[in-house]
Amino acid sequence: MAMLRHAAGSMKYFVNVNSRCTRNCSASTETFSDIPSPQGIWPVIGHAHLFGPTGPYKAERLTEAVMDLSRQLGPVFKLRLSGADSVVTVDADDTRTMFRHEGRHPFRPSFPAVQRYRQKRFGSMGIVPGNGEEWYKFRAAILPLLHPRVVKAYADRHTQVASRFVDYIQMKINETSSETINDICQDLMKFSIEAISVTVPGVQFSSLAAQSIREQDTQNIMNASTDFMEGLYGTLIGLPLWKLYRTRSYRKLESSHEVIYKVLESRLQGMKCRYMDSPEQIASAHPFLAAIFNNPTLEWKDIVMLGMETFLGGIDATATTMAMTFHYLAANPEIQQQAYEKVLRQDSSQEMSFLRACIKETLRLSSTAGANSRFLAKDANIGGYLVPAGTLVYAFNSVTSLDEKYFVEPLKYLPERWLRESSTSKGHPFASLPFGYGPRMCPGQRLAEQEMVILLAEVLRKYHLESADHTPKPVGMVYRMNRVPDRPINLCFRNRRV
Ligand code: HEM
């Protein structure tokens, strides 16, 4: 909801929003104004009341709200928010159309509070909050992160971090004399901090060390990551009061940036000095840092900003996805056994493809992003309606990925559907896109997948996972900035070798 409301406010980038589409839409018969929308458009707030205290929906359950609205209105409908109409679709063909009409520099809703703060404090904006040329400069610089050779260079260190996580679990078990670990997401955040630190700043943190002397640092980083997400979200929803004074959410943005800056800047400086002394060595051990240090379009302030974004981007979604994968495997022991057998077989290609399928299946059922969104760069036919350039479209990935039109038994955790020989996928390539798509897709996808697959193999090798809840219930997802589990995930780690 927050996302929707704010985005509608960003329509000032475009003109002609409500005009009739006339170009490239000749096959369509219906106009923009024919697109159905919920009844009751209130002055100023439009449809926002639907998600208010007296409305039928909860903002944190936006996916369920969109499912319900699409049952009433059809797969394509409009919502009026902040004085402009956005289009929502739950059809994977429309998702494809949206991405095919996103242009060379895709526009997503921006984060004006982050833009303002970063510009003022650091003189550099980074990738996430902006659009257009400014976005492109950073995007081009982060692209090496998607290169398989670059990602592979970190594989051994990811294995090392994963085995430290396994030891860390054992340490917790020994300390408490219990195999139960409550709220595993917190522990997985320590994993994801240590794992991303291998790439940026290139100096491995010891978040998972026993009695870490840096325990306070780790806690500060975890708090900063949460504050960053809450700050992004809080400055996006409601009235932009942060323009008048430093609201609580704005202060969270400030404090999280300060913590991460302090943790990263000096370490990046150190790596830069080492790079000057031995460029070949750094290039092979730290190919991503070498690429950004070498990039002539970046000043030092941009390099630090890019480092901050890579670091922050690497924490939250990775931890959530791993926690949900552990949850699904605990709830599906036969699939966990299958995964374990693949790990035992030590055939890395078989092992990897099944474990990768487990992660994909987790992201299909519980994606961290609810929707992919773009302002159309050109007129498009969305679900038979003429939608003009400049309109914001939300393609609800978290709805299409649960639709039986695209997936057999869509509510079941069936990783095999992602394997080539499977018969359980009807295979629409745009039905499940948890990392987005196109020139603006997640640049950390390959790195995150490598970290997660390696961790899964290491954990399964040592532990059998079980739910620690007496009556295991399904875990839903609620919207914060990313979607997160709606309750703590409590697990038993049973040592396989005992
Ligand atoms: C399970 C892990 C992750 C998931 C599910 C995820 C998901 C996403 C999604 C859905 C987007 C928006 C894409 C679009 O609009 O098309 C995105 C953007 C982004 N992600 Fe990730 N991400 C993950 C991990 C990471 C990691 C490890 C990093 C850093 C290394 C990262 C850095 C970023 C950045 C910088 C952007 C903004 C890209 C842009 O605006 O051009 N992400 N991510």
From TrEMBL:
Coiled coil residues, start to end: none
Cofactor: heme
GO MF entry, a single one: iron ion binding
Gene3D superfamilies: Cytochrome P450 (1.10.630.10)
Keyword 4Fe-4S: no
UniProt KW keywords: Heme, Iron, Metal-binding, Monooxygenase, Oxidoreductase
UniProt: heme binding residues: 442
PROSITE patterns xref list: CYTOCHROME_P450
Pfam families hit by this protein: p450
Family per record: Belongs to the cytochrome P450 family.
Protein name: Cytochrome P450 49a1
Lineage per the UniProt record: Eukaryota, Metazoa, Ecdysozoa, Arthropoda, Hexapoda
